[in-house]
Every structure is written in C-alpha cells, then in structure tokens.
Amino acid sequence: MNLFLFLPRKTSQWLVFLVSIIASVGVTFFLIAFICSFSQMSVMFRLADDWHLSETLVYSTDNMFSLSEEEKLAEHDRILSTDGVLDVDNVSFYDFEFPSINATGDIYVHFINYSDSLLKDIRYVLIEGSYPSKDQKNQILLPAYYMKFYSVGDTLRGYDDTFHEPGPIVTKSKPITVTVAGFFAEQPTLDPWSGGVLIDIFSRHISYYYDTVMTPGIVFSMCDEDGGVLPSKHTDMFLIRTNGSVPPGQVKENLSTVVESPALLHTGNELIEDYIDSNKMEIGETISLGITAVILAFSILISSTLLELVYRRKEMATLYLCGAPWSKCLWTVLATYILPFVIGFPIGLLIFAKSAEWHLFYNLQPKLEASDVLVTLGLQVLFLALAILPFRFSAKFKTPYELFRKD
Amino acid sequence: MEHIVLAKDLKKTYRPQHQAPVEALRGVTLNVEAGEMIAITGVSGSGKSTLLHIIGLLDQQTAGSVSLLDTDPSKLSDSKRAKLRNREIGFVLQDFALIPYWTAYRNVEVPLIFAGKKRKERRERIEKLLQEFGISELAMRRVSQMSGGQRQRVAIARALANDPPLLLADEPTGALDFRTKEEIMGIFRELHGQGKTILIVTHDPQIAAMADRILMIRDGVIVDA
C-alpha cells in the first residue's frame, strides 16, 4: 500500500538512487567473487580433510623413475612393512577412448583407479547413481559433464590409450568394458596448473578450467575382459596411511631408507603447505576481493543507507505525525531504499557470471553456485541490518517528535 | 460535557547529553472539554509545545497521567498509540510539517493511507477538503511551489483528513504574513464553530483572543487560566 511512498522524485534523489544501484552492483560483484574464490580455494583443504591427509604420506612416482612391475611390488611391500604404516593404496591413471554415442567424435576419459581400501574414505558428491561396492568391478563414476553423452547403466567398450615412454606412441591394449554407475558433481578449483603437488594429485578429478574439462572418471577396481586386473602404470602413486603410533614426520624418515626416491615422498602437511605456497597469488586475490567487498559495503552501501535514513528523518517524523508507528515510518523509507538492492543484486551476479568470458580474474573461475549466491544475499542483508541497527538504536534516544520542537 | 483531554499533574524532564536535566513541565493539570477552543500561551521554553506533544501522543510524560477520549495512552503499544493519533488527532504546525516535494493531494492522502481507507474513498475525501479550503486547483502542485498560506491550508486539510475530534495547533500562523494569518484564523474560527475541539499554542494575543479559554504557562506550570 504505502511501500513506495518515497520513490525518488527530485533529481538529487534520483542521483542517490542511481549511486545506490551502482554500489549494490559493486558490492554484489565483489562479494560473490570473494565467496566463489574462497569456495574454490578451500576445495583442496576440504578434500585434504576428507582424505585425512595430515595422517597420510604420498609417494608419487614419476616418469623419470619408471620401475618394473616387480620392482614396484617389492617397493610396495617394503613400505607396508615399515614401522608406523597402516596400509598402502595404489592409485593408477588410465586414459580410455570411448566411441561417442551422438556422433560428436570419440570421447576420451581419463580414469583414476583406486584400490579398494580407499573406497571407504573417498566420497565425492554424486548427482545421479550410486557408489559401487568394492566387489563390483569396472563400475565407473563420471563427472557431470558426461551426462549429456551417457546415462547410468550404460555399458562402454573402450581402449586403454596410455602413452608409453619414451615418445608419444599410442598402443591400443586389450579392450575394457565398463558400466556407468553414477555421475559426481564437479567442483571448480582455482587455476589447477598453479597448485603445486597437492592440487596436481587431487584436483585431477574435481576440476575444470574454463571450457576445458579436466575431470577424469573414477573407478575402484579395473579389470580387462578376461578378468585380469589391469597392470599398474608408471604414473602410479602410493597413498600411505599411518597407524597413529608414530608421527607422520617420523614415518617419512623411516620410509626414506625404503623407497627408491625419497625426494618424491611427502607428508600430507607438506603437501598442504606446498599448496598454500603455490597459491599465494590466488589467496592474495581472494583476500583482495573480500577486502574490496567489505570496504565498498561499508563506505558506500552502509553510509548511503544511513545518509538516506538521516536525510529522510524529517519526512519519517511527518509520517509519524500523520499516524504511523515509528517502525512503520522506518520501513516505509527502507522499502524504497531496498529497491536499489533488488535491482543491483541480479545485475552484480550477471556481471560476475559474464566475467568468465571476459577473463577479468587472474585465477578465479567465475561460476554461479546457488550456495554462493545465497551466502552473498545473506551478507548483503547483514550489511543492511548493520546500517539500520545504529539508526534504530539512536531512534530510541531521540524521538521523532523532537524534530518539531522549536525550543 | 464530554472530556476530550484529562491531564493530571503532568511532568516532563529532558535529559540532554552532557547537560543538566531540563524540567519542561512541572505538574500541569488540564481538562479540555469537547468543542472547546483553548489557547496556550507563554514565552519560549515555557513548556507549551511539550504539553501539546504529550497530549498529541508524540511524546510521553515523565510523571502524571493523560486521558485522551477516555483512553489511557500510556497503556497502549506504539502502533495503537499511532492509530489513536491517526484517527482522533490532527496537527497543524508552524513549519507545516509537509513533505515539500510531494503534491498537496499526496500530502493530504497520507493520514488516509495509514487509516486504511480505500483509494476511491481517499480521493473523495481529499477533493472535498481541498475544495473546502479553496486549494482544489493546487491539488497536483508540489508543496514546495506554494506560498506559506497555501501550505498551511494543505496542512489543515491533512489534519482534518480523518475528521478527528481534536485539533492541535502549534503556532499555526507563526510563519505567515498578516493577511494570510487572518485567513487561517478564519478557518480555525470556522472549525471551532463546527464543534471541533482545538488547542492552539500561540504567542499571538489576537489568536489567543479567539479562544474560549487562555492558559498561560511559565516555567512548566500553568500560572493563569
């Protein structure tokens, strides 16, 4: 009824209104960028926590240290028998080529093959399907991107296209048949090429970068069509879990004398530190976005809200005189003032979403997630409340009628 | 005779920050009967406006009691007090208390909006009031573009929008020239003739002379009635 009594009517009011819209757009843009950046930056920390990385060591073999299968098995056994080690999981990477079902060309899927013992810890968010049990062979989980090509239950027959060193010679090994068990949600991360060893290991199955799908599928037990377990690859790595009796640092020392290449052995905490060190720029960008959003919010958003309330105090007192409770006077003014936020909020979100095309950010991959939008909205409401609270507080001490006092 | 206002031993103390407390009212007792026109006079700072604001439910007394149309406002919530103010009291102030960039029509409409009147009902009432005060042609003109006399007429029309029984005026002619003052006085005289109860705070002996009773306040107490 009287919500928009105070729509701008004078040029100066229109100017304030316009500035408020711009402020709202700016605050929304920087807030969502900060939240998105924070969310992408923290993916690695969440994963590290899920994987109990602080109690784990990673031994990542490299092309330079390609060992024979026998040597690898021997190394695996030596690690397992070291003091403080609970178990050792072998993680292999495979590249498979599957024929496309909609004539868009063959599809290459990069798979990570985890051993059974990891199954109980690794839980990515599934948007369709279910996790295979450890007894189910060749049940694959694909990133959401592949939902447009495949459905849960589809059977795919492909070829292992793993490169063999030296040189880029592709060998087509035995065909492998897999069944799609489900699709997991992709989690965008910051620039996956700048994250150090940790992101190199963990982001392979959670990241994408702009239009490039980098997300491989996941399989927990891979066999060929004859039932034979696929041989491990030169890109293997061992995830070594400690049993808690010895600190991970001590386990690392114990293992240094056991593994072929101690330089490739890292504790989980070292990887996290390496990740932080490698992402100083990203973290700096995130902090800058947050500071900009807060400064904008406080300097323009809150001050203009407060100014508006002070500026309209006499008008609110007039409404009070005409028979409105003080709270209604306040909300009558604020209802109009909320309009710039209603207009500015979606514009800010839109600009942020479009900024993915404009490459505005050095590291951040702009992506609108419902949760990020809700948090941004919540923070904006909080900023508004911060602006209103002192006004409400002061209103208790200075009643509106005093504006009519002459003496 | 029906009592419109019954005030008993009203006291009001202001406590400005970093300053000594100011006793604006120090025990005022007042009965206002229906249809009466009372002038409240006194020097600046004597407490006459404070008395008017307490009776008009814009402020609350520190001690004592007020009854307005047999209702004790101190027992009401802020929204019920606002409702009572909206329906039963009209204000006419020296500085008009209008929203300057709104039209006369919109200014008069405000109390009707808060009273929950329908649009058609509001329009009819506003047109009647503006006609009555000879400003119907100015209905769509902004108040800021009007003369002092025209503004005060708009303010009186707004004060009467919900046809309240009690009209409170605080120096209603203080900002007007002689001729306009005469016009506004004429309106008050007419309203009094129609049976409205009117309390006018004024310095002007000519205005005070129109009243049935004159109350003089000095240092927060009524010294002459």
Task: Give a structural overview.
The complex is a heterodimer of chains A (407) and B (225). Chain A folds into two domains: 11-43 and 281-404, no CATH class; 62-260, no CATH class. In chain A, 44% of the residues lie in helices and 17% in strands. Chain A has nine helices and 14 strands. Chain A has helices spanning 11-50, 69-80, 196-202, 248-256, 268-278, 280-311, 313-321, 326-358, 370-397; strands at 56-60, 85-98, 107-113, 126-129, 139-143, 155-160, 163-164, 169-170, 175-184, 208-209, 212-213, 217-219, 237-242, 265-267. In chain A, helix 1 (11-50) crosses helix 8, helix 1 (11-50) packs across helix 9 and helix 6 runs parallel beside helix 9. The longest helix of chain A has 40 residues, at 11-50. The two termini of chain A are 36 Å apart. The relative contact order of chain B is 0.20. Chain B has a six-stranded mixed sheet with strand order 5-6-7-3-8-9, with helices on both faces. The mean pLDDT of chain B is 90. Chain B contains seven helices and nine strands. Chain B is globular and about 50 Å long. Chain B is 34% helix and 27% strand. Chain B has a single domain (35-57, 71-224), classed as P-loop containing nucleotide triphosphate hydrolases (Rossmann fold), CATH 3.40.50. With 225 residues, chain B is α/β, with parallel strands linked by helices. Classes of the chains: A alpha+beta (407), B alpha/beta (225).
